[in-house]
Amino acid sequence: MALVASLVESTPFRLRYLLTADGEVSSPTNPDLDASVVIPNDVGGATPNLDTDSSAGPLREVVKVRLTGYGPIAAGAITQAQARALFLSDDAASAVLTNDLVGRCVAECQGRTGRLSWAVDAEIDGQGDPVLRARCTAGVAGTGYVDLHFRHTFDL
Questions:
Q1: What local confidence, expressed as pLDDT, does residue 25 receive?
Q2: Exposure of 93 by Cβ count < 10 A (0-12 exposed, 13-18 middle, 19+ buried)?
Q3: Which of 1, 2, 9 is nearest to 145 (CA)?
Q4: Which of 29, 51, 53, 87 is least enclosed by beta carbons within 10 angstroms?
Q5: Residue-wise DSSP of 34-98
Q6: How far is CA 49 from the centre of its chain?
């Protein structure tokens, strides 16, 4: 099974990718290989790529955290906790971003077709850039969306 991401929308506050799962299982011993896709964050990389696809604006500043720093996070490789705080708003007691006034994102998956369960997580790549990993039910065909929103209103 291959899970593939394709860019659907790019604004200064949002990236949206269409996720397509073909339902085939090519690795029965390791279904995570078939049922997940990483959306990388490489400078100048081909789409789908967080750096290439992001428009100028606050979301791009968060995506480029390793190169330019962001808020209390200095430029350089970031940690898993910092990636989750920036991309998932997972920052209990403001331990990573130090206060609630530092902008952050929320990532979410939603189904479109098929009977799939979807999940998204923020990880770091070998260079220390934050990336998104989307997962779905192995062996089931369908489509869904993964969104990365910069939180710019109280209800997002």
A1: 81
A2: exposed
A3: 9
A4: 29
A5: HSEEEE---TTPPSS-HHHHPPTTHHHHHHTHHHH-BTTBPSS---HHHHHHHHH---GGGTTTS
A6: 10
Domain count of the fold of the chain: 1
pLDDT value, residue 152 = 78
Task: Report the distance separating Cα 27 and Cα 139, nearest Å.
Answer: 10
Collapsing DSSP to helix, strand or coil, 31 comes out as: helix
The whole-model pTM stands at 0.92
Look at residue 27 and tell me if it is in a domain.
Answer: no
Token code pair at residue 70: 């962001």
pLDDT given at position 31: 65
User: Which residue ranges in the chain fall short of pLDDT 50?
Assistant: none
Structural domain harbouring 134: 3-16+32-150
Distances (CA, A) of 82 to 6, 15, 78, 99, 134: 26, 19, 6, 13, 18
Task: Please name every residue paired with 119 in a beta bridge, in sequence order, or none if there are none.
Answer: 135
| Residue 21 counted as domain residue | no
**Is 119 among the domain residues?**
yes
Determine, yes or no, domain membership for 113.
yes
